[in-house]
Amino acid sequence: MSTYMPKGREIIRKWYILDANGKPLGRVAAQAAVLLRGKHKALFAPHCDCGDHVIIINCAKAVLTGNKAETKFFRRHTGWIGHLKEVKYDKLIAERPDKAMTLAVNGMLPDTVIGRKALTRLRVYKDAEHKNAAQKPEAYNF
Predict the structure, then answer these.
(1) How far apart are CA 44 and CA 61, in angstroms?
(2) 78: which of 50, 52, 83, 135 fits an S-S bond (Cβ 3.0–4.6 Å)?
């Protein structure tokens, strides 16, 4: 059985808009990762970049379920000894909700060239206004 390879002219990229208002952060990020990879399409091939563009709005209104807001941390290291920086997720969502959503989507994409390329097609906004109205995005309900 041969591997299916979609042709370049078969890959049509659409624009979708996801509203995160009142929805869990992880569920919105998981749906965005599916759309960015193109797994919802019939011509999906795991070795081919065939995903769509995704706009996520109202990230400041996304919720964390359970007690993740108090117990979950965003950790990064500067490279120097003893310089582990950590921020609680309730503070991260209050100050930079677009960064929290981008981190969640990035964690659900593969750590390959295809995953990094897919992340460039993600646009995240903390409120309902966005700059991509000219692309005529479709509202994606999940």
Answers:
(1) 32
(2) 83
